[in-house]
Amino acid sequence: MKRQIPNVITCLNLFSGCIGISLAFNGQLIDAGYAIIAAAIFDFFDGLAARLLNVSSPMGKELDSLADMVSFGLLPSVIIYVMLHESPALMFGDEWLKYIAFLITIFSALRLAKFNLDTRQTTIFIGLPTPACALFILGLPHIAMSPSLLVSAYIQNPVILIILTLALSFLLVAEIPLMSLKFTDFGLKNNAYRYLLLLCSLVLILLWQFSAIPLIVILYIVLSAVQFSQLK
Predict the structure, then answer these.
(1) Is this prediction's pTM over 0.90?
(2) Which of 3, 46, 75, 213 could be joined to 9 by an S-S link, Cβ 3.0–4.6 Å?
(3) Residue 104 has pLDDT above 90, yes or no
(4) Of 166, 9, 57, which is closest to residue 102 (Cα–Cα)?
(5) Distance in angstroms (rounded) separating the CA atoms of residues 97 and 186
(6) What pLDDT was estimated at residue 96?
(7) What is the distance between the alpha carbons of residues 137 and 82, in angstroms, rounded to a whole number?
(8) What is the DSSP track for the chain?
(9) Domain that residue 116 falls in
(10) How far is CA 176 from CA 60, 104, 201, 230, in A?
(11) Dist. CA 128–CA 44, nearest whole Å
(12) In this structure, is residue 82 part of a structural domain?
């Protein structure tokens, strides 16, 4: 039973993704975003449980990737798809454009397959992690529903959504080093950029709640670029 505890948690990740897809297709995009957050929490704790219980296994690794494919690959694509489908600016004859949303799913699959084989990604990431991509996308409906934000009037524009989809798809497989958020120690010297990211994230969340998540992901990419440029 102990060996199956991480797998059960991984299955809860997968279940959250399935629920989120159902909610998204029903137009409940905010609730679908909460499903991404639940999946991300389970995704964190399945690995933690495996390490604490010392029961890591090849099956667990493969199951984790399959769950991530649904929760952080397909579900965010469905959110973009529904936003494009509901966009008042999407003209008759341009309906096919909404299927561009599923590039996120395709490139997430490529990203996960690459991650499983890439021995460089033990202490850093090469390319945007799928959970970060999914979290970016869950913030978009929140921004669209926040008229106090200057960008809210533009986020539902299909051109903006398609550009974001293409940019995120590229970042998923790009040869760009990004810092891991796993702490090997808690000293300031080795974790300065992690602490800065966490501090800025806390401030942004307090200011704009879930609408701040896309900005946090951008900040994560920028801080990673600064960190690794200094190591060259």
Answers:
(1) yes
(2) 46
(3) yes
(4) 166
(5) 46
(6) 87
(7) 12
(8) -GGGHHHHHHHHHHHHHHHHHHHHHTT-HHHHHHHHHHHHHHHHHHHHHHHHHT---HHHHHHHHHHHIIIIIIHHHHHHHHHHHT-TT--TT-GGGGGGGGHHHHHHHHHHHHHHH-TTTTTEEES--HHHHHHHHHHHHHHHT-TTSGGGGTTT-HHHHHHHHHHHHHHHHS--EEE----S---HHHHHHHHHHHHHHHHHHHHHGGGGHHHHHHHHHHHHHHHHHHT-
(9) 2-180
(10) 27, 18, 22, 14
(11) 17
(12) yes
Distance CA 152, CA 146 (A): 6
Number of C-beta neighbours around residue 77 at 10 A = 26
How far, in Å, CA of 111 to CA of 172, rounded?
6
Q: Residue 49 corresponds to which tokens in the numbers above? A: 């449980």
Which tokens belong to 198?
A: 């966490």
User: What is residue 196's predicted lDDT score, i.e. its pLDDT?
Assistant: 95
Please give the radius of gyration of the chain, using alpha carbons only, rounded to the nearest integer. Answer: 18
The answer as to whether 158 is a domain residue is yes
The tens digit of pLDDT for each residue in 34-87 reads: 999 999 999 999 988 988 888 888 888 899 999 999 999 999 999 999 999 988
22: its two tokens: 């159902």
Query: What's the domain count of the chain?
Result: 1
CATH number at 163 reads 1.20.120.1760
Rounded CA gap, 17 and 165, in Å?
Answer: 19
Residue 22 within a domain: yes
